[in-house]
Amino acid sequence: MKPMPLNQAFTLIEPGPVVLVTTNDGQRDNVMTISWTMVMDFTPRFAITTGPWNHSYQALSESNECVIAIPALDLIDQVVGIGTCSGADTDKFATFGLTAMRGKQVAAPLIRECLANIECQVVDIVERHNIVVLQGLAAYLDDEREERRTLHAVGDGSFIADGVKLDRRELMASKLPDGV
C-alpha cells in the first residue's frame, strides 16, 4: 500500500445512493442533489447532509418535510445538472425535464422519472454536522422501470453505478430484525 492524501480519504467510503430531495416553500417546488444519505436502524428513518448553503435548505427547515426521490443511472446528467445550479434562479423541474407529482403526506413533490420516492418529515436537524434526520411517511416504487441501477458519488466528480445484486438473505436470516 502507498500513502494517499488524507483529505481524499472520504472517496474510499461512499454512502448510500445519490438522491434528489424535493421541497416546497409554499409557493414553488424545488429539487436538490444530495450525495450523502444514510439509512438509520433498519427503519424508514434517513439522514442527509445539507445546510444553509443550499437554496432548498430554508424550505426544508421551515416546512419540516421533503421527498427523497431516488434516480436511476439513466438520470445521471439531470442529477449532476441539478446539483450544479441554484433553485434561487432556476426552475429545475422545467430545466431538467422532470415531472412533479403530488404525494399524499407532504407538499413537496414526488418525481415521476425516478425509480422511487419517499415522502418524509424532518425529525431533527443536527446543525453542528449539517445532518437532517427524516422520518419516512410513505414510499413509492416504479416496479415497471427498466433501469434500476442507482448512482453513488465517489466525491471527486465520478460516480459508481450499482452492479450485480448478490443474495445472501438465507445466510443472514437469523441475524436480521423481524420484517427486514
From TrEMBL:
InterPro entries: Flavin_Rdtase-like_dom, Flavoredoxin, Split_barrel_FMN-bd. It holds the Pfam family Flavin_Reduct. It comes from the Bacteria. Its cofactor is FMN. Keywords: Flavoprotein. The keyword Flavoprotein applies. The keyword Transport does not apply. One of its GO terms (molecular function) is oxidoreductase activity, acting on the CH-NH group of donors, NAD or NADP as acceptor. SUPFAM superfamilies: FMN-binding split barrel. Belongs to the flavoredoxin family. This is Flavin reductase.
